[in-house]
Amino acid sequence: MSEKKQIIITGGTGFIGSHTVVEVIKAGFDAIIFDDFRNSKPWILDRLEKISGCKIKHFDVDCNNYNAMSTALNSLQNVTGIIHFAADKAVGESVLNPVKYYENNIGSLTQILKLAKDFEIEHLVFSSSCTVYGEPASPIVTEETEIKKATSPYGATKIACEELIQFAVQSDQKLKATLLRYFNPIGAHPSAEIGELPQGIPNNLVPYITQTAKGIREQLTVFGNDYETIDGTNVRDYIHVVDLADAHVKALQRSIKQEANFCEAYNLGTGKGSSVLEIIHTFEEVNDLKLNYVIGDRRPGDVVQIWADPSKANNELGWSCKYTIKDALKHSWSWEQNID
Ligand code: UDP
């Protein structure tokens, strides 16, 4: 029997989840994946085993299905934590289908919290988002920045999940939780074995760039260049997915040292903003190619500019970013070229 602490990773074959599986194993835990591949591919598991050099346990379960998850847990020992990624994340789709988002994102969290209580799992790390800050009064946000009323059902589910976790922690002496507010994850594993696999037409900037460079998309449209920013295009805090994954390990390690009722939120960003045009030009430069792009209209609902103050995560989690935007854009392109 494994003596290692076992960590359930829901959505462990998704973009951030898969990179987190690698880092969790590297840190000496056993990673157990709960994933029904609805937004990913089973071959990601083979890639994860290749990178990690070990067998990885996987359960094909829906995180809304308490019975399926509890059956899986009954076959495991030493489960100490859950990192919960499994969720829907397309802002536009959430506007068209809010019920799906509330059902999948909030529904699955309720089942995960029941499971944590019933199986006495002490640590929960939750995937949140800087979307909770909406359009901030100042572009640089700390964890104290006001949480705004959500402008999309997707954003609303992240706020509701954070609130639910805070209440759950207060009501349960065992549970400790960490809420990780992601800025814009990009890049891929340096091995180019895993990365982002968008379903259909990408909504996010970097997969759209790499698919355009590869010829899958004809042209990238920059959504507006008349904002009050450094060059008129939106500014975001783009963070390498491996750095983001590493923060989950640091969060777990910190949670393990905490007393009852621990619940903290952390911004995960680099602390530096980049405009859409800066990302495009850096991508062209580091990969030595030209991208076909045009300037188009603004995309409704886009935040003008936002970046993280990551001091709290730096100081309390002992975490900082190791990769640059250039590394991330190189790795994204290597990964794109490696997808069949
Ligand atoms: N963006 C763009 N063209 C695209 C996709 C995105 O100009 O095809 C811009 C978008 O307007 C935003 C930035 O890229 O300013 C990041 O968008 P993404 O959807 O990746 O992240 P989010 O808006 O959620 O921060």
Mean pLDDT: 97
Give me the CATH superfamily of the domain at 6-186 and 239-269: NAD(P)-binding Rossmann-like Domain
Outline the biggest β-sheet.
7 strands, parallel
The end-to-end span amounts to 38 Å
- Could you tell me the strand content as a percent range? 15-25%
Q: What low-confidence regions span 5 or more consecutive residues with pLDDT below 50?
A: none
Give the number of DSSP strands.
Answer: 15
3D structure, described in words:
This protein has eleven helices and 15 strands. It starts with 5 loop residues before the first strand and ends with a helix. It has helices spanning 15-26, 43-52, 66-74, 91-96, 98-118, 153-171, 205-214, 241-256, 276-287, 311-317, 325-338; strands at residues 6-10, 30-34, 57-59, 79-84, 123-129, 140-141, 176-182, 184-186, 220-223, 235-236, 238-240, 263-268, 274-275, 293-296, 307-308. The relative contact order is 0.15. The longest helix is centred in the N-terminal third of the chain and has 21 residues, at 98-118. Helix 1 (15-26) links the parallel strand 1 and strand 2 (30-34). A seven-stranded parallel sheet has the order 3-2-1-4-5-7-12, with helices on both faces. Helix 1 (15-26) packs parallel to helix 2 (43-52), helix 7 (205-214) crosses helix 11 (325-338) and helix 9 (276-287) packs across helix 11 (325-338). It is globular, with a radius of gyration of 19 Å. Bound molecules: uridine-5'-diphosphate (UDP). The site of uridine-5'-diphosphate (UDP) has 14 residues, from helix 7 and strand 9.
